[in-house]
Amino acid sequence: MTSTTTAQSLAGRTQQHIALTEQYAAHNYHPLPVVLAEGHGAWVTDVDGKRYLDCLAGYSALNFGHGHPRLLARAHEQLDKLTLTSRAFFNDQLGPFAQALAELTGKDLILPMNSGAEAVETSIKVSRRWGYDVKGVAEAQASIVVMEGNFHGRTTTIVSFSNDSDATVGYAPYTPGFRMVPYGDIAAMRAAIDETTVAVLLEPIQGEGGVIIPPEGFLREVRALCTETNVLMVADEIQSGLGRSGTTFACDHEGVVPDIYVLGKALGGGIYPVSAIAADHDVLDVITPGSHGSTFGGNPLAAAIGHEVVAMLQTGEFQAAAVRLGERLEAGLAPLVGNGFDAVRIRGLWCGIDITDGVATGRQVTEALLQQGVLAKEAHGQTVRLAPPLVATDDDIDTLVEAFKTVMAEFRA
Ligand SMILES: *Cc1c(COP(=O)(O)O)cnc(C)c1O
Which domains are assigned to the chain? Predict the structure, then answer.
């Protein structure tokens, strides 16, 4: 085989995989044209052998990077011992995991599920039941206050309170019981709360919305309002939590403790779907045998991986890395503000960039970054969000910044 035919057959592999996927997998995503085959740390390799810096990190499911040795070792060990029991029986992994996650969150109890959407659903069910059993809300009247621009998952109930038409059109009838207010508007939130209100559900930073950081003090005001009105504060930390924002939870930035933490994504270490909610007895004790469950939730493999994730977060090293790398990224990107960027929002190693209208769209920027060996994802229209793994190096961050500079110079030319 000549080197020319080798190059051709390699380049052909990407096209083949894309064609096969497009032919047989439903078109619910619009992926960038890259077919990944391997990943280690912050870097992935495609089927043609080209390497990319992964600056999406599975929407923060890969906070610890691809194939972190500690997580892989723990997963391999458990894989050979016991993977699934169902909750019809106890297993020897769930108790220690639950204890560790309860300690990390400072809560009495956890309820394990699998996907993030299931954990959000769990928080909604728990809040409603708490409303009826504890607060004394009239039967079937419970209301939950949610934010404009939210993203909480894809179930029928969750999309019922999304204001993103892409996510909602064609899925009616929608689940009632939700009231939407502008993100960051405490007066509107106060006006939306009445005696039927059981919970305020919010992301402490809106991830899919474009890494939208609320006004300083907002989370503290929400906490105070919820306490005053006897409403549960439910923080969806599925994407913002577990180190991404430079603290264990994004609520920590304002010293706020919600009544319910909703966790997922990085809790599974990028290996396995693991989600959970965490709350105190006065809230989570409303759940009784048979009232909620999951075949896979709390299984030994999930619990072993989740436990290792919690142990890794307890050292604080990943939170510290997010702060350090985020500052480096912010300094590197600053010269582009006014030079192709309208704004850069950053908290920890989590960044939303608004591309100046007319320079390029978010999608065009991610396509150009791909050519530079950087994987990123647009949020809405003009926004690109960055969430490199927290195991990225200073050099990796510099690589990302240089790629952005090259790309933006091309668009401005
Ligand atoms: C990703 C995400 C979810 C949904 O998680 P899935 O595992 O995709 O169901 C919910 N809330 C937030 C804030 C998320 O980022």
Answer: 69-313 (3.40.640.10), 317-412 (3.90.1150.10)
